[in-house]
Amino acid sequence: MLTLGHNDIMLGCRANDWHAALDQAAAALGEAGLVAPGYRDGLYDREAQSSTFLGNAIAIPHGTPESREHVKRTGVRVLQFPEGIEWHDGNRVHVLVTIAAQSDEHLDILRQLTHVLDREGVADKLAAADSRTAVASLLSKAPVEARLDADTLCLKFPARDHLELALAGAARLRQAGCVDATFVAAVAEQTPRALGQGLWFTSSTVGVNTPALSLATPETSLEGHQEPVQGVFCLAAQGDAHLGLLERLAALLDSGSGEALFNADVATVLARLSGESASAQTVRARVLNAHGLHARPAKQLVQVARQQTMPIKVRLLEGGGEAVSAASLTKVIGLGARRGQLLVFSAEGEGADAALEAVVGAVGEGLGEKVLPFEEGRDHTQDTPREIPLEPLPEDTPHQAVAASPGLAIGPVFVMRTPRFEYAERAEDAVHEKRRLERAIEAGIEQLEALVRSAPGGEVSEILSMHEEMLDDPELHQAAREGIEEGMSAEAAWWAAIDTAARAQEMLADRLLAERAADLRDVGRRVLGVLCGVELPTPPDEPYILVMDDVGPSDVAQLDTQKVRGLLTARGGATAHSAILARALGIPAVVGAGERVLGLENGVELILDGERGRVVPAPSLERRQRAELSLKERERLEREAYAARFEEGRTRDGHRVEVAANLGNTAHTADAVERGAEGVGLLRTEFIFMAHAQAPDLDTQVAEYRQAIEALDGRPLVARTLDVGGDKPLPYWPVPQEDNPFLGLRGIRLALTQPEVLETQFRALLTAAVGKPLRIMLPMVKDIAEFRAAKSIFDRLLAEIPENERATDVQLGVMIEVPSCALLAPSLAAEVDFFSIGTNDLTQYTLAIDRGHPELSAQADGLHPAVLRLIQMTVDAAHAQGKWVGVCGELGSDAQAVPVLVGLGVDELSVAARQIPLVKARLREFDLAEARRQAELALAQSTSEAVRDALERC
Ligand code: PEP
Ligand code: MG
Q1: pLDDT digits (tens, 9 = 90+) for 595-615
Q2: How would DSSP label each residue in 786-817?
Q3: What is the extent of the structural domain holding 57?
Q4: Phi and psi of 876, rounded to 5°?
Q5: Looking at beta carbons, which pairs linking 240-243 to residues 24 or more positions away fall under 8 Å?
Q6: Ligand 1 close to Cβ of residue 575 (< 6 A)
Q7: Annotated catalytic sites, by residue?
Q8: Which of 888, 891, 909, 910 to probe ligand 1 with, by most ligand atoms within 8 A of CB?
């Protein structure tokens, strides 16, 4: 939004006529470096189309869209003419607010100025103002209304009481950037007040950046108070910005319609709080005018509304703004509606149909302007980036991005550009549209079922099944049906429902959950494709490297692994489902490489290094030959390693190092054993919890763990207790919003706040492993006190459960992930049975680099000498007490790190199942003495780069 600075205002201007005034305005923009001289003609052309006089002695000259090429920078210049000038339409003007805008920013200015138009005497005040401050304050005081929109709502939250709901609402406001942590703390300290009709209210002025209102509703109605709890409003108050909203809320309660908010969806809540009556008829209409509802079309709309026999209200579908009178010009302009946005008109009583039809018809016809139909996905609204010609990537030059799936690929690229879906926005026959949508959803589900059947299993099938569930979501269907009932086509209504849900998902603080928005859009496109009969572009018959903007998970699942040698995306991170799938399918992948990769010509050769996260387009012959050699070498090694996968993990001279598998799903245990796993070295049990809508009970957990134990057939299972909280939330275990979730309530800290959950998990593991070796480890432990707290529960269970009903070969250990634990390893080693070093987190906390940071994570290298020293301290302390040490972070499968870790004395390496044969093969390449030399060499360096260089040379 444009704001007025003092330097933007020029006082005491004089002009004989409007031409001279406009020339001065153009010159002022030019002198400020905002426009080139050609813009002046644009200002004249615009006035020739229609006057930019706004009212109250203000005109807002701005160029035509064609003249935007002369705009260098967006900005405004305000010229005050105390004596006034006669504008060409006969109005008297004292102030020109002259706008240089690259897009539709003039709408924001218009919006800010509408309050001036309402006020009496402003024209005289503007003429008489003798300071810039006075002019600025007359023009700039935009009416602030507290924010209320889909992002400030928190509906159907699994809370247990009104306090938790109040906190959920406060946390939502914090996520939306309206408040800071002090606000959340202030809300936590007070008890919500009952408003009646099941609604409650809490508020604070502390830590408010933007005034806003949140509503949190419970999953199911909460009883147990004097009053039922159906929803808690949480207000971030500042000035009187919330008064309008609270008045509308009071009116809702006065009319006894508070229940309208129970179990309501986002659209209904916003409609009720906008002041739109539940009994009113509503229709939607899309703004088609190229520059939105600016003064001219707004005037037309107001005229049509005034011709009707009943009051008509209008609001923007997006956001939670008030439903205003469609007969008020300032209110209609104040909506600031842009092309593509949906207006919701409402009217009550007999004849409402006809009245609404008249306004919708007028909007559809362009309100006096020539308009083009709006095509979702094709139209250039504020949400769709302008097409900027992509500068090609330089040839034979490495381009760095994010490593997402290891491996090397060489081949021609095939750039898959997102298909365009073309469809009409509106449709007459709602019954027919609903049927079309139903059929398309069914076809989508059938496609997914077929994909699940032909999928290689594991994560691929799981994600495709999750997509099937998403497609079956009754709320999505309902939202789309409502859109159709309001006159949208099946395509438009479906995409609006998908987009709304995906946006809500994207707002979530947790990166993993936010990335699920890609899944939703993927599912949405599948159905849209069926509706529009659009098929994805056909890839070549020869093997290729697939380049996409942001590959959808089901795109990856459908990849022909025989043909797709590698995957390169412009967007996305290493934790996206597509990256996880690429790893599961063994396809080398580099992600987040930027838009320029989309400019690659189809057929251009590319080297893709999924290990280092690098691509080289059009490599020189020499570089290509080098890459081909290492690829051949790698393939040979992989074949040999796989053939020898069942050999024990040993160095060349026979030193034993166990090689186990990291798993998140017990169903994959048999596959890991088939790949040569000597046990499971890390079972991330949180994935089992995440796969359930509520905490799995004892029997469910026993069944899960038994699946792994049986498949292991006597090999050891190392299960990590629940590691959630912070950045890995469990929906049914809410944790207040934290400034630094990585340093917050997570891992064992969180588990100890609900010891009964930990106890059930211990009990389930012990019960499932009767007669089998079981190791349990605790995540994110910082010192011996946390270990002892968990151990006391564990020991009690050992005493309580008869020996024949539980595992007897059990060990309890801790993960070394927090530097304090490595530093204090001697005190821990005396009491624990083993250590397993989580190098992913240990590196993150030692180097203070977020392991998922899009730019920095490449520097979070576990071969940093500081991390290696902590590993050395851990191993020395453990061995001094006769305890064993494993490494279960990614470092364990890093070919350069393997000898270093063995040289430091690590006894077990637990790695991704696919990596097991390679790690065993790597162990066979060196002997213990060599490993020790490499460890010493690494410890003597001062940076991770130096470590890698030194290791490469030796
Ligand atoms: C680690 O931190 O290294 C680890 C293995 O745990 P996770 O990656 O699950 O945090
Ligand atoms: Mg960890």
Answers
A1: 889 889 889 999 999 888 899
A2: HHHHHHHHHHHHHHHS-GGGS-SSEEEEEEE-
A3: 6-140
A4: -60, -45
A5: 241/144, 241/145, 241/146, 241/211, 242/146, 242/211, 242/213
A6: no
A7: 62, 294, 577, 888
A8: 888
By percentage, how much of the chain surpasses pLDDT 70?
A: 88
728 lines ligand 1 (CB under 6 A): no
The per-residue pLDDT for range 86-138, each reduced to its tens digit, is 999 888 999 998 988 876 666 666 666 766 665 667 778 888 888 887 787 77
Nearest CA to ligand 1 atom 10: 841
Q: How many domains does the chain have?
A: 6
Last residue of a domain, one of 514, 532, 550: 532
What's the CA-to-centroid distance between 780 and ligand 2, angstroms?
7
The torsion angles phi and psi of 479, rounded to 5 degrees, stand at -60, -40
Q: Compute how many other C-beta atoms are within 10 angstroms of the C-beta atom of residue 61.
A: 27
Mean pLDDT for the stretch of residues 928-945? 96
Closest protein CA for atom 3 of ligand 1: 838
Distance from the alpha carbon of residue 549 to the mean position of ligand 1, in angstroms: 29
Q: Is the CB of 840 under 6 A from ligand 1?
A: yes
For residues 57 and 126, the answer to whether their CB atoms sit within 8 Å is yes
Could you tell me the distance, in angstroms and rounded to a whole number, from the CA of residue 420 to the centre of ligand 1?
Answer: 40
Same domain for 744 and 667, yes or no, is: yes
Torsion, CA 146, CA 150, CA 156, CA 157, rounded to 10: -70
Residue range 350-365, pLDDT digits in tens: 889 999 999 999 998 8
Question: Cα 376 from chain centroid?
Answer: 22
Residue 838, ligand 1, Cβ within 6 A: yes
Task: Judge if 485 and 546 occupy the same domain.
Answer: no
Ligand 2: distance of its center to the CA of 865 in Å? Answer: 19
Residue 385 included in any domain = no
Q: Pick the ligand that lies closest to the CA of residue 842.
A: 1
Q: Cα(950) to centroid of ligand 2, in Å?
A: 28
Q: What is the pLDDT, as a whole number, of residue 256? A: 85
822, containing H or E segment: helix 819-823
What's the average model confidence in pLDDT over 834-847? 95
pLDDT of residue 380: 36
Helix (H, G, I), strand (E, B) or coil at 629: helix
Ligand 1 atom with the smallest distance to the CA of 686 is 9
Confidence of residue 899 (pLDDT cuts 50, 70, 90): very high
Query: What's the chain's average pLDDT?
Result: 86
Q: Give residue 85's identity as a one-letter amino acid code.
A: I
| Structure tokens, 505 | 């998902």
First CA to last CA across the chain, in angstroms? Answer: 59
- Alpha-carbon Rg for the chain in angstroms: 32
Pocket test for ligand 1, best of 748, 818, 840, 909 (most atoms within 8 A of CB): 840
Alpha-carbon distance of 429 to 199, in angstroms, equals 39
Assigned domain for 389 exists = no
Domain boundary among 252, 273, 294: 273
Answer whether 747 contacts ligand 1 (Cβ < 6 A): no
Q: Give, using CA atoms, the residue closest to atom 8 of ligand 1.
A: 840
* Alpha helices (H) in 455-598, listed in sequence order: 458-471, 474-485, 490-506, 511-514, 516-532, 553-558, 577-585
Q: What pLDDT is stored for residue 337 in this prediction? A: 82
Same domain? 197 vs 318: no
Same domain, 525 and 573: no
Where residue 526 sits, what CATH number does that domain have? 1.10.274.10
